[in-house]
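Morning. Coffee machine broken again, so started the prediction first thing and wrote up yesterday's gels while waiting. Chain of 201 residues, entered below exactly as on the submission form.
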Amino acid sequence: AGGGLVRGTGVLLEHDGRANLTVLFNALLRHGLETDDTIILVPTIELRESRVAQLLDGHGYDIGDLLSTGRLAVVDLVGTWDDDRPNVFTPAHDPETVMDRLSRLYNDIDGTTYSLVNADAIVHTLGADAARTVRYFTQATLLDSESALCHVLNPNTVDDQVAAFYRDSAEQALETWIDDDGVQYLSLRKSPCGFVGTTSL
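Came back before lunch.
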């Protein structure tokens, strides 16, 4: 996608629940660290603590160091991380608490952010209306023009209206799925520009 996710607006990565997301998450995490962003992670079940530690170790990063120095912060709504670690938070499942925690994280960061957000967890723990509120709040209030915000969603696990909301509110949308032939595909469905060298596939 032209060297990284679109900045300053929302990005959506849709998947079918069968596609292997690890390679994509690995690339996204590495890119965020290499561009000196602070990563804010609302993890999917695939991004449990041990798996993220393994991915980061493959690029020469220690998860303990990243958490203790503030380069990585985790808002865990799934319950797969140790919240005794620094910068790992398990907020109560209500939109005000989640927005407050995100606000404090963004305000404490000096520089740009690279957020990977499990939209499924937000919808399932907060409800559809609250998920919309958090989604709009994050982009409208917290996101600056140089930071990245990527929501990850399996549209098969939420109502059609909720899936359509996430598609509509994203400026850039990617989709990955496994076809009947067993091959995994990746498609750039929506993007603010289509010029070769800027956004291309």
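The longest strand covers residues 172-178. Going to sketch it on the whiteboard this afternoon.
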